[in-house]
Write a structure and sequence with these properties.
This protein has eleven helices and ten strands. By secondary structure, it is α+β, with helices and mostly antiparallel strands. Strands 4-3-2-1-5 form a five-stranded antiparallel β-sheet, sandwiched between helices. The protein has a five-stranded antiparallel β-sheet with strand order 9-8-7-6-10. A hairpin with a 2-residue loop joins strand 3 and strand 4.
Length: 279
């Protein structure tokens, strides 16, 4: 079968896509996130005098698209499963041209379902529309087959992401107490093509994990081979360094002891609630 025919078989009806897009794809995204346990995102246009996206609350942000993504670089959208650069070029920039009316930039944030009620999105999720989207998605098994399955402990995706981007060292420390595992830092030696400009520390630290006796590793997304975890960050070659992990933890505690204690408590609660057994 030709590639064009495969793509047509994957595709949702144009009328459905346009209906979902008329509500910024929020109903499709909620349906798919519930089916796959992957992460809900919103891309925003964030107005800024400097042209750089601001930090903080979403007040004044303009929503561009609601979608689902995995913990690496794949986007799951009504118009297809695609890597981030393709999604940005095909989908997001079109929305920017249509809606951005000031200096600023695109800002991506992830959320749990409950957060949407307080966000300045144009539409709130509608349970009837979500149910209808679920029916349509289930009819497209080829589309679903292109979405990687979440494995492991199934900590809710928005919580797993919180401890993947910036708090991984805290989660590794919680795993030390909860499962008696040995935390270690991962330091990049070589990057995948296209990832060479990823920001890292001077020591090229990019993540902390906890090691199992059989060589597998665990972070907030669950248990996986070390190489698979490193590839999520675009790292093709790396070394482990327990001393660097301890240094990272020491800096976190020194810079904000209250925030560290709160994150550690949150991590322990998640581990106790969503325990994963690895034999």
């Amino acid at each position: 079968m030709g590639q064009a025919k495969i793509k047509r078989r994957d595709a949702f009806a144009q009328s459905l896509v346009e209906e979902w897009e008329s509500r910024d794809c929020i109903d499709f995204a909620f349906a798919l996130a519930r089916m796959t346990n992957w992460l809900l995102h919103v891309d925003w246009w964030a107005p800024s005098i400097t042209g750089k996206p601001p930090e903080g609350k979403e007040d004044g942000f303009i929503p561009l698209r609601v979608y689902v993504a995995d913990n690496k670089d794949l986007i799951f959208d009504p118009r297809g499963v695609m890597p981030i650069p393709d999604f940005a070029e095909r989908i997001v920039m079109k929305q920017v041209r249509a809606r951005a009316q000031s200096n600023g930039g695109v800002l991506t944030r992830f959320y749990g379902e409950e957060k949407f009620a307080s966000l300045p999105v144009r539409f709130q999720p509608d349970e009837n529309r979500i149910a209808e989207a679920t029916v349509q998605i289930k009819k497209h098994q080829t589309y679903l087959s292109r979405i990687p399955e979440r494995s492991g402990a199934q900590i809710p995706a928005h919580h797993a992401a919180r401890f993947s981007f910036g708090r991984c060292a805290v989660f590794a420390e919680a795993l030390r107490e909860h499962a008696k595992l040995q935390p270690t830092a991962l330091l990049a030696v070589r990057m995948l093509p296209g990832w060479e400009h990823t920001e890292m520390s001077e020591r090229r630290y990019f993540h902390s994990v906890a090691l199992h006796r059989d060589g597998m590793a665990q972070d907030s997304w669950g248990i996986a081979p070390l190489r698979d975890i490193a590839l999520r960050f675009g790292v093709s070659e790396f070394i482990t360094d327990a001393d660097e992990h301890r240094s990272v933890v020491s800096r976190l505690k020194a810079n904000s002891p209250e925030a560290y204690a709160e994150s550690y408590s949150d991590a322990m609660t998640l581990l106790k609630t969503h325990a994963e057994r690895h034999l």
